Amino acid sequence: MAQGLTGLWAFLMLTLFPLYMGEGYSRLGEYKYRFFLWTSLFCLLPALLLVCLGWAQKGAAACALRNARRKRICSPLDLCMFLYLTAAGLSWVFGVDRRRGFAGTEGWHMGLLTQILFVLAYFLISRLLMLKKRIWKNVLLTGHFLGSGLAFAVGLGHRFALDPLGLYEKVAQADRLRFLSTVGQATWYSGYVCMALVIGVIVFFLTRNPLERLAAGLYCALGFAAAVTQNSDSAFIALGVLFGGLFWAACDGLDQMERFLETLLLMLLSFKAVGICQNVFSDRAAALGGLSEFCSKSLQTWIALCAVSVCYTLFLCFRQRCPERKELRHAKQIRCLAVCFAAAALCLTLLAIWLNTVGTSGAQGQGRDSYLTFNDRWGNSRGFIWKLTAETWLRLPFGRKLTGVGPDCFSAYFYADEGLTERIEHFFGWNQVLTNAHNEFLNALFCLGLIGLSAYAGIFLTAIRRFLRKGVRTGPALMGALAAMVYAAHNFFCYQQICCAPFLFLILGLAENLVRSDRKTEADPAQERYIA
């Protein structure tokens, strides 16, 4: 029964949650949270109660002994989850507003209750679901493709003035670029698209069944088209990290490298197909800017598509000439070069930003609002928010530096201080409310303190290390690693919210579940280890 309730929660979240809206875009965050809350209360809490009753009937000592014999001890990721929940509870106890710290700020609801449900979902999914019985493939995966695929299709239609659900009827023309699909705000939607795409990309990357791969390919094409039209630059950073993780996995062999090139081709083809449609239907296409329009319309992406096509063709010719070759030679060195290249690119970017900001690069008077100039307007005013948050945290007492101001109590602390309120209203205007730091890790530092940030960062670092070590031998492990990487990259510039955060814990739970159950079959090298 507990397994069924946990599976039902995962199915509802993957299938119905992205489509549920309540009253259109009006108070959408509130309605999404209510769906998550009541689904969790009616599924996860009874499942937990049944598990506890089972332990009580069999005896806790007997269960512990049996688990020890099976070597099913807590993993490092489990420990980080425990520490994170403990840190959130400690922050709530010493927070500035316990009521708000428990329920969360209205419209966001990222308080202690939500964090408890996130961690509970992870543990129940990682322990209870019998994913080896094909439930993943036949129920959860199909539900995910249908639910998220419909959300992608609605969002893509909105960018071409197609609104079959009538969601734009009460939205002013000037605001329609900020809202799309059944997820709402573009930033929420971009985070959801990136997390949903991780599952589809892993299936396309690893499955051997031709029909399943065709379905996954069509899903990914739709997802990449949704990504290039969502109009949030954070999504492209997340996609870059996604393909970086795929490349790391592709170094395991030539089969995987071939799949990597095919996935990259699929993304670029989807981008350019959207660009062609934008040119053909220019009277209906939304006017996007930034990286969205660059990726769909620019000459540079045509060049990238041609270059990848040539590389893929040469790679196939090589494989035909040497069909016996399976391993990629010098894989370790290739990975090291890739890491060094990424690190060098990041360092050069940071150096360019610093030089351009201080004005020593000779470009001081140019592009003061560009990405290479870190000022108050940088990143849609993230420069101001980050600096204000960092300055305020440094002025906190030592105890508050450790435990924070309380879960989701960012606005409760800032608007209780007249000086901080005046600075925010002077910059944004009196009708704008700043509810978080617009950087999930900086927000965790301010709300949960150094202890909370350390535990939260530990979840990502541990998941990436634990799951990447499995490589493509266990598909869901790669899915868990990429989910952690993509979420961290996207939300370094965004914030925790109900449309995206539950899927991080859900996917990590699925990955942990299949990694733990995969230990039983490690002695059988002929056992199928692909995700589908």
Structure description:
The protein has 532 residues and is mostly helical. It has one domain. Helices cover 69% and strands 1% of the residues. It is built from 21 helices and two strands. It has helices spanning 2-15, 28-58, 60-69, 76-93, 98-103, 112-128, 135-158, 186-206, 210-229, 234-250, 254-280, 290-297, 299-321, 331-358, 378-394, 398-403, 410-414, 418-428, 440-468, 475-491, 501-518, and strands spanning 179-180, 184-185. Strands 1-2 form a two-stranded antiparallel ribbon. A hairpin with a 3-residue loop joins strand 1 (179-180) and strand 2 (184-185). Helix 8 (186-206) packs parallel to helix 10 (234-250) and helix 9 crosses helix 11 (254-280). The chain starts with a helix and ends in a 14-residue tail after the last helix. The model is unreliable at 361-368 and 521-532 (pLDDT under 50).
